[in-house]
Design a protein that fits this description.
By secondary structure, the chain is an alpha/beta fold. It folds into four domains: 47 residues, Single Sheet (N-terminal domain of TfIIb); 225 residues, Rossmann fold (3-Layer(aba) Sandwich); 175 residues, Dimethylsulfoxide Reductase, domain 2, CATH 3.40.228.10; 107 residues, Barwin-like endoglucanases (Beta Barrel), CATH 2.40.40.20. It is 29% helix and 18% strand. The chain has 22 helices and 28 strands. The strands form seven sheets. A seven-stranded mixed beta sheet has the order 5-4-18-17-16-6-7, covered by helices on one side. Helix 2 crosses helix 18 and helix 14 packs antiparallel against helix 19. The longest helix has 19 residues. Iron/sulfur cluster binds next to helix 1.
Length: 683
Amino acid sequence: MTDTHCPYCSLQCGMTLARQGRRLEVQARAFPVNEGALCRKGWTATGLRGSRERLTTPLVRDRATDEWRAVGWDEALDLVAGRLAALRAEHGPDANAVFGGGGLTNEKAYQLGKLARVALGTRMIDYNGRWCMSSAASANNQAFGVDRGLPFPLADVEQADVVVLVGSNLAETMPPAARHLDRLRERGGKVVVIDPRRTSTADRADLFVQPVPGTDLPLALGLLHLVDAAGAVDEEYVADRTVGFEDARQAAASWWPERVERVTGVSVHQLRELAALMTSSRRVMVLTARGAEQHADGTATVLAWVNLTLALGLPGRPFAGYGCLTGQGNGQGGREHGQKADQLPGYRSIDDPAARAHVAAVWGVDADDLPGKGLSAYELLMALGTDGGPRSLLVLGSNVVVSAPNASRVTERLASLDLLVVADIVMSETAALADVVLPVTQWAEETGTMTNLEGRVILRQQAVTPPEGVRSDLDLITGLAERLGAPSTWSTDPEEVFEELRRASAGGKADYSGIDYARIRAEDGVFWPCPATEGAPHPGTPRLFAHTFLHADGLARFVAVQHEGPAEPVDGEYPVHLTTGRVLAQYQSGAQTRRIKDLPDTGAFVELHPLLALRIGAHDGDPVSVRTRRGVMRAPARVVETIRPDTVFVPFHWVGANRLTSDALDPSSRMPEFKVCAAEVTT
Ligand SMILES: Nc1nc2c(c(=O)[nH]1)N[C@H]1C(S)=C(S)[C@@H](COP(=O)(O)OP(=O)(O)OC[C@H]3O[C@@H](n4cnc5c(=O)[nH]c(N)nc54)[C@H](O)[C@@H]3O)O[C@H]1N2
Ligand SMILES: Nc1nc2c(c(=O)[nH]1)N[C@H]1C(S)=C(S)[C@@H](COP(=O)(O)OP(=O)(O)OC[C@H]3O[C@@H](n4cnc5c(=O)[nH]c(N)nc54)[C@H](O)[C@@H]3O)O[C@H]1N2
Ligand code: SF4
Ligand SMILES: [Mo]
């Protein structure tokens, strides 16, 4: 019996793994985040173990015949390291690029960043977190001076009086979290859900608001306008704890309710009802997720909602404030320790000379030898194989062929590389295009820390031995670093890597230096920041902002934002809004969950309203085509009354949705606009 955590989403639900003969069984475990509950994906998570779908030997593809050849690890690593070194010698260090993932443990993310900067000397590293919560991260940094998704434990939700979910379908995307909404309502609290679709989360709402996709920003401006007009701004809090309110107030001044209704489709009546709810109590929480964030103005949208919470004096108050519901298992930790293009461990900036000096000293290298900032995920993928762009890519923990925006272009770029290396547990769509595939261990077969959506650092413990032929990502990284003759030390032991990470993070914003494996085991996880101390250990920081924000002056920032609208508005040719997202039983690109036989695999579908179906002559279950400026896909229609008549929804777990999506990027976070583009739907 081993206590560990689920391999999937950012809740990182606690579970116990027990061996039953050759089977590995998932059992409930009383962990504070999930209190023994798991979703369907968690209960079936061991389904890949022993499956024929598991990769168990390194594979090399012959490009001429397209045939795979099984090779030993030494041969595979020699080949990869040799070609990386040759590309570097011929084209310079930025010829090699690295792509990571928010599902990787902290130790792997840390070591991958170090591999890029120290062993390859490349600035070309980024990761799939750009697809995920990067706009909320950027807004949090600007407003509060720190990016921790939730600045309070998740269970605080049930002590609030009003919770506003902006673009979150948590009943499907983090089901055990929905119990907090239920308990809040049992106490008489109110839940507001803002989503163009009436989801199963919206079924729990006291107020359901159904805006046009891409209009959460003017909605927030309209609310600030009403709050201000009602004299409900917390002037004392604004004066004592913030700067910049006047500009934010000005930006909202022209958003009178009728104008908001015209742009968002939300009635004046509902808008007033929502404003009244938000001013009815001091315990109001606004939580955003991908619905609000995955837009070309995602950062501005989050800032608009943060402005509203600041005007109401909420952040820092108990059971109130703003939070982002991070998505991937290590979405939070994965953005702190250096696999991001502009970042060094401890959430340090790679442009900051003091940060470079600190990390270089931990690594035992010269700070001048560390490369600078590289390209963001989509820009990096688009640069592959271009003149002067990277000629190789090493992918750990992402399936970009399915999950990147404008995926057909991304696939073309991958095909133009001299060398594509993918480490994965299964033959994902991206691995299938690789020159070399490296089979790695999965969660139950290794140990490592993850940082969940609350900023709680937890420990996944190894429960079983990996299949023969499979190695951990840390082994792989060390194997490459050694072959490349890299300076510094490269441990394959997760706890040793974590000890180094602690030192590298010390003094940074995400300070882990006071956390160790023993403490995590003893305390059900430790919340960062948790600096090392002389004497009594630092308790960790479950709640931030009670007394101060993390800008140097301790004040939060209002950042005035304007509404510009989606990068690709609907028009006569493409008259329908296309939005994308998730279903309960599948995870992300589906690489893992589509291969688990106990999970239903429906294939892609197109959700549309009966009025739209009638207009185009579509019938439930029959195929329809969705076309955008980038591509077309065909899938069965699901005719439902729960979606806006001007909008269609396609889940992205199967190849197709991302052939359609827009590659417009948010100017500050570089987040692609997954959640809205213009489409035409036909039978
Ligand atoms: N089952 C399952 N759970 C998951 C995942 C998974 O793949 N499957 N992935 C995990 C990850 S990495 C993430 S990031 C999270 C994501 O968690 P969520 O953000 O909850 O998931 P999504 O389905 O992407 O989007 C949420 C909702 O946004 C709505 N939406 C679309 N456009 C807009 C808009 O313009 N405004 C508003 N207000 N809403 C809009 C969609 O209709 C959808 O219901 O889930 C995590 N959990
Ligand atoms: N249209 C549309 N597209 C989207 C989104 C959307 O809402 N709409 N959401 C975006 C979001 S929020 C996200 S987070 C991304 C996610 O999309 P991806 O980045 O593709 O995420 P996964 O499908 O989780 O891919 C993880 C891959 O790594 C493998 N893997 C799992 N664990 C490990 C490990 O420990 N090591 C290694 N080496 N490999 C491992 C898995 O088998 C899988 O192939 O998709 C984005 N794409
Ligand atoms: S909610 Fe997330 S962490 Fe919990 S069991 Fe489901 S997928 Fe796993
Ligand atoms: Mo995500």
